[in-house]
Design goal:
By secondary structure, this protein is an alpha/beta fold. The strands form 3 sheets. Strands 8-7-6-5-4-3-16 form a 7-stranded mixed sheet. A 7-stranded mixed sheet has the order 9-10-11-12-13-14-15, covered by helices on one side.
């Protein structure tokens, strides 16, 4: 009995030490930070909340069925051959073209606008997991450009703290290249734990607006949740981002279920020359926090977008649909609604504001 007790106590202590000291899990919101967070209209009863009721609860039966489906796998759940990709020449980032953007897969983008370089949700690692050696791997074995070859980054925008958007390994490699990180409320604790200087981190609530490097930025609502560990669900905020230059407007959805916030954003900031809209890793059982592709097209219309790039697909398998379903369903819905969709390959440069944009079905 004594040995059993010792083993149990050891497991508990080991778990506590792991949760507190394993760096990839991120930091914990301090009491001082919590005082500021409490001022947010989006914070209630110790947690951040969505604009409208958003249930993420599933019955034990449903959770079991999801687990069994994940274990069985999905037909065409991953590419059966190397996916198309274009390599990014570092010299192309040393120009002053007005606006161009490059997709790195999933929700990661490199934006060049008015001589400023912006990274959006730079998950540039091999696996969206706290244990990248064991987690599901990136479809492509490499990126369009190595992190080490990237030039200095003026701005990094983070939408929320999930592993497929905020990656410990990527931040560790990027942090000395970046002038400024802009994140939702609370997310700065992760960056600080990973050695990013406090003065380089700015946290924002929904509808905050500010100027930086000649750009007008706004942190806008999303319908989602947050958390990196067992006991930090919704301890930090999630958001979408509006990026406005002199002649260009871009909307980045982050992760979101469909909701009235898209129309609100469109009314306040639209129309947008380009929208980067989540359309993958969905399921009817969690559609409140991840849009279905048909809803993605409607959200693009709600924010008054001109051209849409479907995102949150093409890099990882995090749901039970075929890996090409998101873009195929989005294209079908877009055709029915007369919506223009750009489908760049990973690493392919898209000129923003041009009437010509990539539209090949490279994944087929």
């Amino acid at each position: 009995m004594l040995i059993f007790i010792i083993i149990v106590v050891g497991i508990i202590l080991g778990g506590c030490l792991f949760l507190n000291y394993y760096p990839a899990l991120g930091g914990r919101v301090s009491k001082e930070r919590l005082r500021n967070i409490n001022l947010s209209n989006n914070f209630a009863k110790g947690k951040f909340v969505n604009q409208i009721p958003t249930s993420m609860e599933m019955s034990a039966k449903t959770m079991l069925s999801v687990l069994i489906e994940f274990i069985k796998g999905t037909p065409n759940g991953k590419p059966n051959k190397p996916i198309a990709m274009e390599l990014l020449d570092p010299l192309l980032m040393q120009n002053n073209k007005p606006a161009q953007i490059t997709w790195f897969g999933h929700s990661s983008f490199l934006l060049q606008i008015n001589g400023i370089i912006v990274l959006l949700d730079p998950m540039l690692g091999k696996s969206p997991s706290p244990f990248p050696q064991w987690g599901g791997k990136r479809y492509s074995k490499h990126l369009p450009i190595d992190i080490e070859a990237l030039p200095p980054i003026d701005i990094v925008l983070i939408s929320h703290d999930h592993y497929d958007h905020l990656d410990y390994g990527s931040i560790m490699k990027l942090k000395d290249k970046v002038k400024q990180f802009f994140v939702p409320l609370g997310v700065g604790v992760h960056l600080e734990r990973w050695g990013v200087a406090q003065e380089k981190i700015k946290e924002h609530d929904w509808w905050d607006e500010f100027e930086v490097e000649g750009l007008h930025l706004a942190s806008t609502p999303a319908r989602h949740f947050s958390g990196r560990s067992l006991n930090d669900r919704n301890a930090t905020l999630w958001c979408s981002w509006v990026i406005i230059a002199q002649q260009t407007k871009i909307f980045f959805s982050g992760d979101s279920g469909y909701g009235p916030h898209f129309a609100e954003i469109g009314k306040k900031y639209g129309p947008f020359d380009l929208t980067l809209m989540e359309c993958g890793q969905y399921d009817e059982r969690w559609s409140a926090i991840h849009m279905l592709p048909e809803e993605t097209v409607q959200a693009h219309l709600d924010v008054q977008g001109k051209i849409m790039i479907p995102i949150h697909w093409g890099a990882f398998t995090l749901a039970l649909h075929a890996w090409t379903d998101p873009v195929e369903r989005a294209l079908k819905a877009a055709k029915e609604r007369n919506v223009a969709i750009a489908t760049p390959k990973i690493g392919e440069i898209v000129s923003i504001g041009s009437s010509e944009f990539p539209s090949s079905a490279w994944w087929r």
